[in-house]
Design goal:
The protein has 338 residues and is of the alpha/beta class. It has two domains: 78 residues, no CATH class; 239 residues, Alpha-Beta Barrel (TIM Barrel), CATH 3.20.20. The longest helix is centred in the last third of the chain and has 14 residues. The radius of gyration is 19 Å and the shape is globular.
Length: 338
């Protein structure tokens, strides 16, 4: 990776500054990548429906001049998003309205998931969030208090999951307060953080955040979201090393995406590189069928074939579990075919 002096200066800024300078237009991103947007199937309508948003840190992992780059495909608004696909809806997992009102999802035994914020540092085109313009939703102070009380009053809850959106968009002071409150609840054993930020904005792993996580008496698990080996650059590796050194368990979940990671080589390379840097592959999700994402779909039978190829080549612990979310089910569902 060769960096311009402009980029080097950018990466010396703090994470909020880097975030504020994320790409927000198709033309700016294309110019940076030496691509001509008029040669690409981009769509202004798609970008109005769900804005383009890409931190430079992630864009810097893309190959310049490559219109088919697997990272670019995850973030570039294209005409395919406007196509109709049968069976796609605005709420494929069937729980967003209640979650966004209460800020909490308690679907699975022993675990509650907090919607800490509705926003993300990056807008992934395949995400169901695209159809919910709840960018500013976040647990209000009052809601937060109510949520803590409800966890306190339910001794069946052993794990609290921070999710979103991206919970690491909360600032360090807010996160620290939240973690401290959960630390005071005896029956909670673990705190899990679901975040794409260590991958797309590794500057978010600040000393203060590391301190908060280190000082927590509860076990901390971080579930990252990385779909392709190219997303893991030196800054990402450094951020993960810092987390790892504090004894934080690092797992990864990916989404199986056509044109991004739907071949055995790409999946194997991803698993190998994750593990090399201390991250265990956890889940490989089938796409949630949200309107605007149909062109990313990989069929169940293709997915099973791919995972069998990966399994034939890699150590067992490098094979992620192929899962899908089924509305109303008691857990994520393994995809088994048949
Ligand atoms: C995915 C999810 C979890 C976590 O499930 P695991 O299988 O334990 O990773 C918890 N709660 C909700 C609502 C979820 O969607
Ligand atoms: S929730 Fe995850 S997949 Fe969706 S836009 Fe945010 S980072 Fe991307």
């Amino acid at each position: 990776m060769t960096e311009s002096t402009h980029e080097t200066a950018h990466f010396h800024q703090n994470w909020q500054q880097q975030l504020a300078q994320a790409f927000t237009t198709i033309d700016d991103l294309c110019r940076y990548l030496d691509l001509n947007s008029s040669d690409l199937p981009v769509s202004a309508i798609a970008s109005q429906q769900f804005a383009l948003r890409v931190p430079l840190s992630f864009a810097a992992c893309m190959e310049k001049g490559n219109p088919d780059d697997p990272l670019l495909r995850q973030v570039l608004p294209i005409q395919d998003e406007l196509a109709f696909y049968a069976g796609y809806s605005n709420d494929p997992v069937g729980d967003l309205p209640s979650a966004t009102q209460t800020g909490i999802l308690h679907k699975y035994q022993g675990r509650v998931l907090l919607i800490n914020t509705g926003s993300c540092a990056i807008n992934c085109r395949y995400c169901f969030r695209r159809n919910f313009p709840y960018a500013d939703l976040q647990l209000s102070k009052q809601q937060e208090h109510a949520v803590i009380l409800s966890i306190q009053n339910d001794s069946s809850i052993h794990e609290v999951i921070f999710s979103g959106g991206d919970p690491l968009l909360l600032n360090d002071a807010r996160l620290t307060r939240l973690i401290e409150q959960i630390n005071s609840i005896d029956h909670v054993k673990r705190i899990r953080i679901h975040s794409r930020l260590p991958i797309v904005l590794p500057a978010r792993i600040t000393d203060e955040l590391i301190n908060t996580l280190t000082n927590s008496p509860k076990q901390i698990i971080m579930v990252l979201h990385c779909n392709h080996a190219n997303e893991i650059n030196e800054r990402v590796i450094h951020a993960c090393q810092q987390l790892k050194q504090q004894g934080i368990t690092l797992l990864n979940q990916s989404v199986l995406l056509k044109g991004v990671n739907d071949d055995a080589d790409a999946l194997c390379e991803l698993s190998e590189k994750l593990f090399q840097h201390g991250i265990l592959p956890y889940y490989l999700h089938l796409l949630d069928k949200a309107i605007g994402t149909g062109h990313f779909a990989v069929s169940e039978s293709e997915a099973l074939l791919l995972i069998a190829q990966v399994q034939a080549r890699l150590s067992g612990y490098l094979v992620p579990k192929l899962v899908q979310e089924v509305a109303g089910a008691a857990s994520k569902q393994y995809v088994r075919g048949g």
